[in-house]
Automatic annotation (TrEMBL):
PROSITE patterns linked to this entry: TRAM
Gene3D superfamilies named among the record's database cross-references: Nucleic acid-binding proteins
Superkingdom assignment: Archaea
Entries under SUPFAM superfamilies matching the protein: Nucleic acid-binding proteins
Protein name stated in the entry: TRAM domain-containing protein
Compositionally biased region (Basic and acidic residues): 55-72
Pfam families in the cross-refs: TRAM (PF01938)
Coiled coil segments of this chain: none
Length: 143
């Protein structure tokens, strides 16, 4: 699995907006509520190109997934260890692992995943801002 440095404080999706001649990335309020970031502080950010997918714009397709999200509420990670999910790999990270996003832009790292792959994965490790998964069923288009 990819190694996440202890200095990583937050992973979320956001849109860059132009405002009064400057560019703004809006930080979700949950990042402040969980003391991940503080007002007035300076942070280093990384930017990954991530085209919007239909799944990002709509409710989860699966009734089980929607029910699971309601049980967890919107304050914690939207996945649980042992959960099985269908994901779409959007990009690859520096270590070559696939990066997928699920509900609320939450990041799931999938070893060996390539952009466009749609594997079924099992969530193995959950952290506040990122989860790690293993492939349990390979996307047939990737063969």
């Amino acid at each position: 699995m990819v190694e996440i440095p202890d200095s990583l404080r937050s992973v979320f999706s956001a849109t860059v907006h132009e405002r009064d001649g400057t560019y703004v990335v809006e930080v979700p309020s949950g990042e402040l509520n969980h003391d991940t970031v503080s007002l007035g502080e300076t942070y280093r950010i990384a930017v990954f190109d991530s085209p919007t997918t239909a799944q990002d714009e709509h409710e989860p397709a699966s009734a089980d997934r929607a029910q699971s999200d309601r049980q967890r509420g919107s304050s914690g990670p939207p996945v649980e260890e042992g959960e099985i999910r269908d994901v779409t790999i959007e990009t690859t990270g520096d270590q070559g692992d696939g990066i997928a996003k699920v509900d609320r832009g939450y990041v799931v790292i999938v070893p060996g995943g390539q952009p466009g792959d749609e594997p079924t994965v099992e969530i193995e490790q959950v952290q506040e801002n990122v989860a790690f998964a293993s492939v349990v069923d390979i996307d047939p288009r990737a063969l």
